[in-house]
């Protein structure tokens, strides 16, 4: 582990009185409308040099719009932006970069076919006589990669890296170079605890070097760990401005949610729980192996039961979800039984036929169809023809057509289904024809939930169901999961957030190095206890 | 080690090239006669030159379907201007520049009208081909410059046809540009993940236009080389070169998905396909079968490309 001499143990102590207190960025009266809808109603924010300033708000509160404006990706309708006391106007992202603003994008923006170092210096390649020279840059990159705990060489292709490492490369991309303001938009969404801590050390170092940092995260504990000040947004207005020591998470959540604050209730008392002892197992997995990721996994899920998978990134959680859905080759010794019958789940089609549905971890890449409308996105999977208690009147011909994929789409019927799920899940959208990409992350996830509900699976596998989703939508997704379970669906939730597992699940399997190392009942466990097993 | 060699795309082309040479030599040893080898080298060099430009285009995840007609245009320009009595250096420069201008037009169409390159260049292919017919009235222009002929097929230092040196020079320049300059990196970045390229502030319009100018200019060079080799020019020059050069690029190991370019592979594949063509000739396969065979090779190369990309995961995560 590489510890730099300037690693600021002292800076941490000095947190309340950093070196320089000049304003790096000042935003005044920022307004922005999309079409007829104004999403920012005059925002003022000030960032001092050497401070971490948290920007909080539900999805749709206006955080992304502010970030896009400050980083030059959007032009404001009104308002002033000052950098170091001088008014600036950005023609584009490049202009913002030149003015000293660096951004860690929320989405991965890496070229998979280029190497780490090529990605990091994309657009700002170090050259000599017009030819690229990596020599000096390479040492610098290696050092920062080390600092963040990435063991890869700078020449490795980014496409071959794990998601967490790619995210770290994205971070390195932003923190190398000259800048005065660093925007971190959900930088930890793919990182585990250890990686997050390492990142925070780097953030503290940058802070001590006088960089102003605008920090956006849905994880409140991160804010209270790393930030000096917080600005909370709701519906395009600033509703709270505090120094971190002078506020607490309860207050912050209240101002984020406003009148809806009741949503942040704890775990609902005994929704469909307790009945599972008597109910039949939906899924029984014995000796599932898929080397090198998974070894001898035994697991059962009963009808109406919610089972959790805990473990650090790379522990095999994702791989296990994929294996159950038929996306991974499993060893021949593996036995999988669904509803008591042996099942061969070697491809998603088979899994779907058997009533298994996966909500993928990477929603953008694997879940949504960005160019289709909401209705198409929701009703894309074939409804399971045989098991339709709610739709018994299908003629034989129609069943045949549906089964072969030859049937015509019945728009009216689909719209009805769409509207019923829209109101049931409270999907916020302007209508069935909206593009799914116009929705917030939480609402996109709800559409995918509706897709699952429409398919009516016996077993539902959820991989990180609330990643990148704000607190309000999170609670609604939890309710949707509870409801699915109450209908008798067996559910597997894989999540990096222990509190989420404790909230949702009755039992939690803890994975480490591709093996199940513990099975705990949520009722007799705590976050600390599970974290200890994970880290042991 | 062996595995790594097998996985290397350019080596696959090299192995295939050796196999083809051995096969056709076994069928008929006229294949390795000096005359035939020189013919193979000249035609391989010509398709390598246009293929180098196409490699940039494909690495940027685009296609240039107008290279064939641009070759014809440059050849016809050369013939016409030489007949008008202009000196050869002027004619060559004019030919290359006019083809580069066609590339510029392609680039502008793509950038300004936001057309997919496939559509834009398909349209310009048709326009340019039409011009070629109008300029020549369908007739053949004879070229009486033996210097131009020497510059293509004449032996340099008594060893190799001059065309090989042109291709070699082109390869070295393009290789350095692709691997050692920011421009080359930006081409790969646009092809690999355009959002990342935008985010990094890459000047997408400029790079796009430049790549199509390069592709046009190199098509011009190979058109002039063709004219020099044939000692005449008509609208059939470059016919089918668009498919041939895409085949050369893909067989050479550059993925149609963009993001990477394999220039050595392109050159090797140019030699491979030229050898196959000549070998079929030597072993008396009627030329009517050529299209069939090259189409088959292209399909196999695309399948290999697809397998290479899709190897990691079993299926798409789409319900």
Short synopsis of the structure:
Chain A has 536 residues and is an alpha/beta fold. Chain A has 19 helices and 22 strands. Chain A has a domain of 261 residues: Rossmann fold (3-Layer(aba) Sandwich).
Structural topology:
The complex is a heterodimer of chains A (536) and B (319).
Chain A: H1 9-13, E1 23-34, E2 37-48, E3 52-56, H2 63-70, E4 78-83, E5 86-87, H3 93-98, E6 101-104, H4 116-120, E7 127-128, E8 131-132, H5 135-147, H6 163-175, E9 181-185, H7 193-208, E10 212-216, H8 220-226, E11 229-234, E12 237-243, H9 249-257, E13 281-290, E14 294-302, E15 306-310, H10 317-324, E16 335-338, E17 341-342, H11 348-353, E18 356-359, H12 363-367, H13 374-378, H14 396-404, H15 411-425, H16 441-455, E19 459-463, H17 471-486, E20 490-494, H18 498-504, E21 507-512, E22 515-521, H19 527-535
Parallel strand pairs in A: 3-10, 3-11, 6-9, 9-10, 15-20, 15-21, 18-19, 19-20
Antiparallel strand pairs in A: 1-2, 1-4, 4-5, 7-8, 11-12, 13-14, 13-16, 16-17, 21-22
Helix pairs in contact in A: 15-16, 16-17
Chain B: H1 2-7, H2 9-27, H3 34-59, H4 67-83, H5 88-112, H6 117-136, E1 141-142, H7 146-153, E2 155-156, E3 160-161, H8 162-180, H9 182-192, H10 194-199, H11 204-230, E4 232-233, H12 241-251, H13 263-282, H14 290-310
Antiparallel strand pairs in B: 1-4, 2-3
Helix pairs in contact in B: 2-13, 3-8, 3-9, 3-11, 3-12, 3-13, 4-5, 4-6, 4-11, 4-12, 5-6, 5-11, 7-8, 7-11, 8-9, 9-11, 12-13, 12-14
How would you sum up this structure, described in words?
The complex is a heterodimer of chains A (536) and B (319). Chain A has 536 residues and is of the alpha/beta class. Chain A has a domain of 261 residues: 3-Layer(aba) Sandwich (Rossmann fold). Chain A contains 19 helices and 22 strands. In chain A, the strands form five sheets. Chain A has a six-stranded mixed β-sheet with strand order 6-9-10-3-11-12, sandwiched between helices. In chain A, strands 18-19-20-15-21-22 form a six-stranded mixed β-sheet, sandwiched between helices. In chain A, strands 2-1-4-5 form a four-stranded antiparallel β-sheet, with helices on one face. In chain A, α15 packs across α16 and α16 runs parallel beside α17. Chain A is globular, with a radius of gyration of 25 Å. Chain A starts with 8 loop residues before the first helix and ends with a helix. The N terminus of chain A is likely disordered. Chain B is mainly α and 319 residues long. Chain B has a single domain, classed as Orthogonal Bundle (ABC transporter involved in vitamin B12 uptake, BtuC). In chain B, 74% of the residues lie in helices and 3% in strands. Chain B has 14 helices and four strands. At the A-B interface, α3, β8 and α12 of A face α9 and α10 of B.
């Amino acid at each position: 582990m590489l510890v730099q001499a300037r690693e600021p143990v002292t800076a941490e102590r000095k947190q309340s009185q950093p070196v320089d207190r000049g304003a790096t960025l000042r935003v005044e009266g920022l307004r922005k409308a999309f079409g007829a809808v104004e999403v920012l109603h005059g925002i003022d924010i000030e960032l001092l040099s050497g401070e971490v300033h948290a920007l909080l708000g539900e999805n749709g509160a206006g955080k992304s719009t502010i970030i896009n404006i400050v980083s030059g990706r959007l032009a404001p309708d009104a308002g002033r932006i000052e950098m170091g006391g001088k008014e600036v106007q950005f023609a584009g992202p490049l202009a913002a970069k030149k003015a000293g603003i660096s951004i860690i994008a929320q989405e991965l923006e890496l070229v998979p076919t280029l190497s780490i170092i090529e990605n990091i210096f994309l657009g700002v390649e170090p050259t000599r006589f017009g030819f690229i020279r990596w020599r000096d840059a390479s040492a610098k990159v290696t050092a920062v990669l080390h600092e963040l705990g990435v063991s890869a060489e700078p020449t490795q292709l980014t496409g071959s890296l794990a998601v967490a490492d790619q995210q770290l490369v994205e971070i390195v991309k932003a923190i190398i170079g000259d800048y005065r303001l660093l925007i971190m938009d959900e930088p930890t969404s793919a990182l585990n605890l250890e990686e997050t801590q390492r990142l925070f050390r780097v953030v503290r170092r940058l802070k001590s070097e006088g960089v102003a940092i605008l920090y956006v995260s849905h994880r409140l504990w991160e804010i209270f760990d790393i930030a000096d000040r917080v600005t909370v947004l709701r519906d395009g207005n600033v509703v709270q401005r505090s120094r971190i020591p002078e506020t607490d998470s309860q207050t912050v959540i209240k101002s984020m949610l406003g009148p809806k604050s009741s949503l942040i209730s704890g775990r609902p008392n005994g929704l469909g729980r307790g009945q599972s002892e008597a109910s039949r197992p939906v899924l029984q997995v014995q000796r599932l192996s898929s080397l090198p990721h998974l070894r001898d996994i035994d697991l059962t899920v009963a009808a109406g039961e919610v089972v959790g998978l805990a473990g650090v990134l790379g522990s095999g959680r994702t791989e296990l979800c994929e294996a159950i859905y038929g996306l991974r080759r499993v060893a021949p010794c593996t036995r999988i039984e669904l509803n008591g019958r042996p099942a061969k789940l070697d491809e998603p089609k088979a899994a779907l036929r058997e009533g298994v549905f996966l909500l993928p971890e990477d929603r953008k890449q694997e879940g949504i169809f960005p160019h289709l409308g909401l209705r198409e996105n929701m009703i894309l999977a074939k409804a399971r023809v045989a098991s339709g208690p709610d739709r018994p009147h299908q003629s034989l011909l129609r069943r045949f057509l549906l089964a072969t994929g030859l049937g015509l789409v019945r728009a009216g019927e689909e719209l009805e289904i769409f509207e019923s799920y829209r109101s049931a899940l409270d999907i916020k959208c302007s209508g069935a024809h909206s593009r799914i990409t116009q929705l917030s992350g939480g609402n996109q996830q709800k559409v995918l939930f509706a897709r699952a509900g429409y398919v009516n699976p016996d077993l539902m596998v959820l991989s990180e169901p609330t990643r990148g989703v704000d607190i309000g939508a999170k609670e609604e997704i939890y309710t949707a999961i509870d409801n699915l379970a109450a209908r008798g669906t067996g559910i597997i939730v894989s999540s990096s957030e222990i509190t989420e597992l404790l909230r949702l699940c009755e039992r939690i399997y803890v994975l480490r190095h591709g093996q199940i190392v513990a099975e705990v009942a949520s009722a007799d466990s705590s976050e600390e206890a599970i974290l200890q097993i994970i880290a042991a | 080690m062996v595995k790594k060699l097998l996985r290397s795309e350019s080596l696959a082309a090299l192995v295939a090239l050796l196999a083809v040479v051995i096969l056709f030599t076994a069928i008929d040893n006229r294949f390795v006669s000096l005359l035939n080898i020189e013919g193979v080298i000249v035609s391989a060099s010509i398709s390598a030159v246009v293929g180098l430009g196409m490699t940039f285009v494909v690495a940027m995840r685009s296609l240039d379907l107008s290279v064939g007609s641009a070759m014809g245009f440059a050849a016809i320009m050369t013939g016409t201007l030489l007949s008008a009595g202009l000196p050869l250096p002027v004619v060559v420069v004019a030919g290359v520049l006019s083809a580069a201008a066609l590339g510029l037009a392609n680039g502008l169409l793509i950038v300004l009208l936001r057309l997919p390159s496939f559509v834009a260049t398909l349209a310009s292919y048709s326009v340019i081909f039409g011009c070629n017919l109008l300029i020549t009235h369908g007739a053949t222009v004879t070229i009486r410059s033996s210097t131009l002929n020497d510059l293509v097929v004449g032996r340099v230092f008594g060893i190799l046809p001059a065309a090989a040196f042109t291709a070699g020079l082109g390869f070295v320049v393009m290789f350095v540009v692709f691997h050692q300059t920011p421009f080359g990196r930006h081409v790969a970045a646009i092809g690999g993940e355009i959002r990342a390229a935008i985010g990094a502030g890459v000047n997408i319009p400029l790079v796009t236009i430049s790549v199509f100018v390069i592709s046009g200019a190199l098509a011009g060079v190979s058109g002039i080389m063709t004219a020099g080799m044939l000692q005449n020019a008509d609208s059939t020059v470059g016919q089918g070169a668009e498919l041939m050069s895409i085949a050369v690029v893909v067989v050479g190991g550059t993925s149609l998905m963009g993001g990477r370019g394999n220039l050595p592979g392109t050159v090797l594949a140019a030699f491979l396909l030229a050898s196959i063509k000549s070998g079929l000739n030597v072993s008396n396969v009627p030329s009517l079968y050529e299209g069939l065979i090259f189409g088959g090779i292209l399909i196999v190369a695309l399948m290999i490309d697809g397998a290479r990309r899709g190897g990691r995961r079993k299926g798409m995560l789409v319900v």
